[in-house]
Amino acid sequence: MSALLNFFRSEHAQRAFAEVRAEGQAQGQAVKGAKDVLRVLSLRGLEVTPKTRERIEACKDLDLLDTWLDRAVTASRTEDLFADG
To answer: Which of 18, 21, 29, 50 is most buried, by CB atoms within 10 Å?
Structure first.
């Protein structure tokens, strides 16, 4: 049992745990970013097709989600979000 505890205390294990935590946090931020974009579009009364919803929800690029969120505030149509990417 102490060998197992030593493994979990090891530098290698701690690095692995930190990586998993960071990946989980990034995924959580991406999910929140996608929800924010969809919420703004909904509040503005813009149509969100299933294909558009899927594209937004599948995006894991936080910078791109931020760009889409900025565009969602002023877009005339949902398609305007994707003008350059």
So the answer is: 29
| pLDDT tens digits for range 5-23 | 566 667 766 776 666 665 6
The one-letter amino acid code at 6 reads N
Cα–Cα distance for residue pair 48/42, rounded to 1 Å: 8
Contact in structure between 55 and 68 (CB atoms under 8 Å): no
CB atoms within 10 A of CB 85: 9
The long-range contacts involving 30-35, CB below 8 angstroms and separated by at least 24 positions, are 30/59, 30/60, 30/61, 30/62, 30/65, 31/57, 33/59, 33/62, 33/65, 33/66, 33/69, 34/59, 34/65
Give the domain ranges of the chain.
2-82
Rg (CA), the chain: 19
pTM metric for this prediction: 0.70
